[in-house]
Amino acid sequence: MKDGKEVELHTWNGQDDPDNPFNWSFKYKWILTITVCFISILTGLPAGSYGAGNDPMSTLFSVKNEPFPNLYWATCSWNVGAALFPLVFVPLTENTGRMPGYFAAYIIFELFLFGSAFADNFATLVVTRFFGGGASSVSINIVGGSISDVWRGDKARSLPMSLFGFTSVAGIALGPFIGSAIVQIRRPNIGLDAPWRWIYYIQIIYNAALIPVFWFILQETRGDVILRKRARKLRKETGREIYAESELVKTSIAMQLKLSFMRPTKMLLTEPVVIFFTLWISFAWGILFLFFSSVVQTFSQSYGFGIFQTGLIQLAITAGAAIGTFINPLQDWLYLRTASKNTERPGKPIPEGRLYTSIPGSFLFTVGLFMYGWSSRPEVHWIVPTIGVCIVGIGIYSIYMGVVNYLTDAYEKYAASALSAASLGRNTFGAFLPFASFQLFKTLGFGWAGSLLGFIGLILSIVPIVLLFKGREIRAKSPFMADSTFDEEEATYRRNSVTRPPMSRGASVV
């Protein structure tokens, strides 16, 4: 019924409907997956490439970078934008479609690269990078949705999601290398031809050149948006009252925005799993950004490395993420094997099975921090702390994949909100934790600074261990998890498994 009238419901023409994204060819699915993951890399690069221009920017804008890293405010603003923008704009793509979201965010991202490139004062850089970081994060967050739109089932999604996890880390980690390579251009450090501006010029050029390529390759992946377009076309051609289901039940934009803010915020304040997982991934993400400055500090003081050499060292994080990507199929295999042991939903893998490799990965993260801190000294070969950085990269990737996949499985209907809460936390840590880098390593020394960070990482490694052994009980006591499953039998089981009155559907969930 629509407006009190009976209408025809338009849906897929059977299970094999060629317009259904799940039925697209295997070849095109991979072309689309690789393309959107490439977008994830491109939009992540400016996050770290900016710092390669610190020295000339400090002189040009009269901004002191020691003892407090004032130039980092432009990276802080990037991460604050990355934390806030997805809460507002990513949920809207559920109705408007993925493609408008990609291209709107990508064009805004490109425009604010222009703003940064031609900035004539530091305040302009801070502001333009806030909007650039926000648009970048929107693009990256849509990628996971696109992959879910076209790959059906956990097994089919495992490799595409693993690739997405790699590009999420690598896109940011590659930034310092790209930036340091660009500033090697022999240009005067004044005017619009200064090398630090070329960090933006070159990214503007290749990003703009790729827009028509992306337009040619990408298609809308959101199923209900495709059905809505088909229904509109049929109404126009036949004059009959034909509607897609998404047209019958509409949520106003104001309500969508309200939910996109309130639900993640409530989960971040009331859900222990979301709280501790957010702390876990946030600290790892903060270390990723802290390395942008600490690697320059430790390797320049201990080994006399220049900007380009320290940029090369930071490629070790990307190498670590690549190693984690190669290991991840083992994690997926272990996860799928838990289906035979699931008594809640027989035949479906257990959410805690997502954490098997992230636990040793979290310990590797800690080991890498200790190794990096204590080996960053002139008498130890530079390859040793570099290996420590690589090990930290493996840990960051493992933690990221564990958090994303577990929250998606455990919260199902509210997965987007749980992931938004975690994204808000990790980008906030990425914004502010690196401010402590210079004084931390200078005051405590490289070894003890690395140890302090390592001990914090070790404490947070308890989070996945507790969930591995107590996950079922925790999920049973969570109001959101009890109401989040698509399986009615399991929802009833979860609600009845705790000594409290059963919750009516949606009663205590924003």
UniProtKB/TrEMBL annotation:
Major location category of this protein: membrane
InterPro entries referenced in this protein's UniProt entry, alphabetically: MFS (IPR011701), MFS_dom (IPR020846), MFS_trans_sf (IPR036259)
GO cellular component terms attached to this protein's record: plasma membrane
Keywords: Membrane, Transmembrane, Transmembrane helix
Localization, UniProt: Membrane
Domain Major facilitator superfamily (MFS) profile: 32-475
Pfam families: MFS_1 (PF07690)
Positions of transmembrane segments: 30-51, 71-90, 102-119, 131-151, 163-186, 198-218, 268-292, 312-334, 355-374, 380-403, 415-436, 448-469
Coiled-coil annotated residue ranges, if any: none
Domain of life: Eukaryota
Molecular-function GO term, any one: transmembrane transporter activity
Membrane association type: Multi-pass membrane protein
Family: Belongs to the major facilitator superfamily.
Protein's name in the database: MFS multidrug transporter-like protein
Species of provenance: Cucurbitaria berberidis CBS 394.84
